[in-house]
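Issue 218. Parser rejects a valid record. Input:
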Amino acid sequence: MRIYKPPRGYAVARPRLVDDDAILDATRVVLAELGPVKLTLAAVGARVGLAAPTLIQRFGSKRGLLLASAARSPLMVLRAAAEAEARNTSPLAALRDFALSSVAHIERREELGNGLGFVQLDVADPEFREHALAHSAAIVDTTGRLLRAARTAGELKPSADVDALARLTLVCFNGALQVWAVNGWGSLTDFLRDQLDLLLAPYLIEE
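Output the parser choked on:
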């Protein structure tokens, strides 16, 4: 067995005991608790046992950390959709599962309100807006694919315009979140389910 000996003056990098995904998961939790303005690197680091300077080495700044979190959001949409499809055989059931499971962890209006604070960055900052557009596109594309599958499976009327319906689903989802953040009607999961059912009802094939 050969033992590798680095050349003199070569610094061996320490292994990362906490990977970036764990840090970005912690960032989402802190965002829900504090919002993007009050979020600090120290607060995120405390969640994963890392000092703020370590996060600066990884992400450059608080802005860099938030951008990394935003950049990952489209991938998380695709992951959530794949998990929902694995749990359901019906495309429409998978669509509902996909939407509802994404908010199942939210219990208080304040959590959602803090998360919606990111919208200000999405509107005002071109880099954040780019990631927000990719996130919306991932939702619309995923929803459209599931709606096409539902139409093929005989769950939706053949005349259903799935492209338009996919965009309406995004509007319904985002609108429901903002309305519930203000009004808090029941649980968020129940409220969102009711809005999705109302949206889809005219396009369903009655059994």
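Fixed in the parser; the record now loads. The chain is about 70% helix and 0% strand.
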